[in-house]
Request: fold
Amino acid sequence: MSDLITKKYRCPLCKINHTIEFPKDFALNRPSYPFTHTYIHSYEAKYPSSDSGKDVLTILYIDKNLEIRHVEALFQSADGNIVSMEDAQRMITFLTTQLDDVQDSFDALNEKYQKLLKDHQKLLEEKEIHA
Ligand SMILES: [Zn+2]
Reply:
């Protein structure tokens, strides 16, 4: 039995379907849905071109059921510079989403931490009473 789930998505750059594997619990415990997953695949169009083999930065929007709802793809240039304003805008939108997710995770964790601290304090106090 495999713990991986294979999903297909239509790549807007290559114009073909790619497959990607996720661990079964990949969508669990995300602060919000759909969440984003970023990775890089090599450009592979139906017909070879000068872009073949280039790195494609891929942003997948994945829902609770591990369904891929939306795909964004853009070429990552070799020198790391972002080529166009449009690409830059997309990256900013993407990073803002990521930041929001991180902030949400942080808030949730912090809340748990504060509760743990309180519980710990309580335990200490009880120990003192019984000492
Ligand atoms: Zn592709």
About this structure: The pocket of zinc ion is lined by residues 11, 13-14, 18, 41, 43, 56, 73 (CB under 6 Å). The chain has one domain: 4-130. The radius of gyration is 21 Å.
